[in-house]
């Protein structure tokens, strides 16, 4: 069976998760990408075809001129709508392209949730090329959050305190992202959480979620995630109802939301598996072939009604983060450690020694990722704290 995977830059999710899963399922894989050289360095034996994957017409044309597809899949935030349209064109299982578009376009998500009666969040849109000064007259409920309409990974997501700062921040983002439309929306207070789901259009499994700690304002860099096997049922029900309103229910979905006084409100919906190595941790923690399950849904296979997932797992991820621009001059090497209490700890560097980087205010500032799993949260937390205390990350301006 032939699986087409759409991708832009290489990611751990594809390299360590989906490609090994596809091999395990015996699939013939063709990778379509607009960055072929970067993928060929990591996968010299993989069939890689260059394609403007941002254009669904180019994707359909490239597949039509090659082997007949059995599945079209992507785990990229940027390519969900394109993959959904291509799958529909070839009559294959896939996500509803409308739902993929609603979740990718943050302004459309807010409009759709409000129109459906699921939730109403004050929001306004600054179209591409428009003067940010247009926003000065808005009756906005400050503080507000400004972000790219179709952004990812908290890039250029900032808290603003008033009209002047709003106009200034929008101008700064436009300078970095010419042609990008922006969204301004009310700041939603509360505990930041995630919900991880997997469905086949018939059944939907809730895999648990994370509680997320972010950096100090004005940025929203995710610095620590702590796994929770189950959020309170009323909270889960509220989130699932909003996902239903958006039409989300096929394949993997990573939903970010806040809870305040028992009310759950969506921050954003990433219609794909959670990234930044959280999906690798989740598969290990739950003891299920997560990536295989996701691919099987796109092959048209029903999910089991019981995934057989473990429920006793506890976990935490920490991301040592750059605080200044400069060259990384000291950092630990990759490590796999068994700590006290049976905790399994993995550290993987995300930036090489000697590399110089600017400061981005996003997850591109991550220097590495620490993943720790066990059955006792206190033991997991101690293992991470001890690893952080025993190592240093230094940046020379």
Structural account:
- There is one protein chain.
- The chain has 397 residues and is of the alpha+beta class.
- The protein has 4 domains: 2-92, Rossmann fold (3-Layer(aba) Sandwich); 97-115 and 189-306, 2-Layer Sandwich (D-amino Acid Aminotransferase, Chain A, domain 1), CATH 3.30.470.20; 122-186, Dna Ligase, domain 1 (2-Layer Sandwich), CATH 3.30.1490; 312-397.
- Helices cover 30% and strands 30% of the residues.
- The protein is built from 11 helices and 20 strands.
- It has helices spanning 12-24, 36-42, 56-64, 80-89, 97-104, 106-116, 163-176, 233-246, 278-286, 290-298, 377-390, and strands spanning 2-7, 28-33, 47-50, 71-74, 123-126, 144-148, 158-160, 182-186, 191-200, 204-214, 222-228, 250-260, 263-270, 314-318, 326-330, 335-339, 343-349, 356-357, 368-374, 394-396.
- The strands form 4 sheets. Strands 13-12-9-10-11-14-19-17-16 form a 9-stranded antiparallel beta sheet, sandwiched between helices. Strands 3-2-1-4 form a 4-stranded parallel beta sheet, sandwiched between helices.
- Strand 12 and strand 13 (263-270) form a beta hairpin.
- Helix 5 (97-104) packs across helix 6.
- The protein is globular and about 55 Å long.
**Main sheet summary:** 9 strands, antiparallel
CATH class of the largest domain: Alpha Beta
How widely separated are the two ends? 51 Å
SS element count, helices: 11
Reading side by side through the largest sheet, how are the strands ordered? 13-12-9-10-11-14-19-17-16
Helix share, percent: 25-40%
CATH topology of the largest domain: D-amino Acid Aminotransferase, Chain A, domain 1
The general outline is globular
Strand content: 25-35%
For the record, the count of structural domains works out to 4
Counted beta strands: 20
CATH architectural grouping of the largest domain = 2-Layer Sandwich
**Would you identify the CATH H-level superfamily of the largest domain?**
ATP-grasp fold, B domain
């Amino acid at each position: 069976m032939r699986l087409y995977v759409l991708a832009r830059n290489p990611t751990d999710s594809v390299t360590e998760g989906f490609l090994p899963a596809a091999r395990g399922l015996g699939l013939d894989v063709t990778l379509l990408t607009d960055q072929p050289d970067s993928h060929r360095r990591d996968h010299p034996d993989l069939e890689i075809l260059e394609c403007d994957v941002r254009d669904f017409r180019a994707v359909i044309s490239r597949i039509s001129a090659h082997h007949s597809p059995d599945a079209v899949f992507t785990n990229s935030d940027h390519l969900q709508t394109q993959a959904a349209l291509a799958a529909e064109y070839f009559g294959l299982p896939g996500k509803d392209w409308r739902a993929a578009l609603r979740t990718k376009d943050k302004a459309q998500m807010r409009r759709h949730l409000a129109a459906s009666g699921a939730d109403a969040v004050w929001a306004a849109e600054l179209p591409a090329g428009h003067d940010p000064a247009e926003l000065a007259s808005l009756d906005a409920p400050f503080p507000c959050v400004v972000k790219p309409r179709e952004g990812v990974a908290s890039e250029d997501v900032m808290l603003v305190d008033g009209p002047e700062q709003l106009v200034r921040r929008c101008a700064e983002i436009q300078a970095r992202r010419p042609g990008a439309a922006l969204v301004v929306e009310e700041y939603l207070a509360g505990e930041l959480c995630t919900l991880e789901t997997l469905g086949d259009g018939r059944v939907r499994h809730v895999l648990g979620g994370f509680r997320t700690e972010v950096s100090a304002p004005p940025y929203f860099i995710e610095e620590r995630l702590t796994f929770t096997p189950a959020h309170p049922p009323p909270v889960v029900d509220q989130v699932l109802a909003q996902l239903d309103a958006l039409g989300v229910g096929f394949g993997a979905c990573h939903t970010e939301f806040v809870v305040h006084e028992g009310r759950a409100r969506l921050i954003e919906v990433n219609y794909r598996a959670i990234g930044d190595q959280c999906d690798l941790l989740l598969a290990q923690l739950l003891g299920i072939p997560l990536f295989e399950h996701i691919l099987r849904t796109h092959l048209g296979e029903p999910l089991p009604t019981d995934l057989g997932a473990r429920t006793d797992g506890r976990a935490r991820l920490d991301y040592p983060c750059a605080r200044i621009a400069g060259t990384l001059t000291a950092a630990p090497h990759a490590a796999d450690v068994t700590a006290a209490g049976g905790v399994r700890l993995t550290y993987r560097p995300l930036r090489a020694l000697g590399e110089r980087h600017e400061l981005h205010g996003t997850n591109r500032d991550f220097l590495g990722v620490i993943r720790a799993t066990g059955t006792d949260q206190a033991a997991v937390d101690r293992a991470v704290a001890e690893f952080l205390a025993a190592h240093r990350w230094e940046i020379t301006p």
